Amino acid sequence: MDGNTHNVLFAFGLTLFAGLATGIGSALAFFAKRTNTRYLSIALGFSAGVMLYVSFIEIFFKAKDALVAELGAKGGTWATVGAFFGGIVFIGLIDKFIPSFENPHEIRDVEEMEDTRAADKFKKLYRMGLFTALAIAIHNFPEGLATFASALKDPQLGIPIAVAIAIHNIPEGIAVSVPIYYATGSRRKAFIYSFLSGLAEPIGALLGYFILSWFFNDIVFGLLFASVAGIMVFISLDELLPSAEQYGQHHLCIYGLIAGMIIMALSLLMFL
Fold it and tell me: Is the pTM here over 0.90, yes or no?
């Protein structure tokens, strides 16, 4: 095996490790009891804190840096802001036009009640989990490409980047698995959707290596990242936080929100 092939395999292995860390977060949901709505409230608030913090502090500014470098200060800033709100409009339209899930076999009641109001709550949770998985998968795609490119260029640099992203992906796994588990009662489904959202990172690496390297530049990267920041902010404010309030006490939701921000902040500070 020549040196170049070894570097490619090493870079892909790091990207795979980082992406599949979502499974660790998903596994944490396995220890929860579905009747424990206090845990659900804290976990949803925690997920919102993670997504809000990483969107505003990390993703938005990475997108801005890339676009400013290519388009100048004014053009790059306008492009970043436009893509950010474009992401919000995009996920808002999806939220409006995608119908609710009507399969009664997907509905499970926390208190074993079959009333329509409870069923509607679990449809909403299931739908929210799928939207979160979609947003995280979109986020993970360029993230995987970035991890792969860094590791390919400098393996010593790729290791801390992969570890940092893996730490990020643990709470992202929680964000996907918890609402799906509470909606369906299926740990298997919760794990599968979380696992699939994490697979977007190695897929991003592969496509970047074989296809996108021809035209994937800093402008495309910046626009995509800014859009993903908008998508994650919309999901946090429209889905995660209202559901966290609905299933628990106000203060539990806020404590989870702050804890999510702190954990994400620490994961960013570890590898400065």
Answer: no
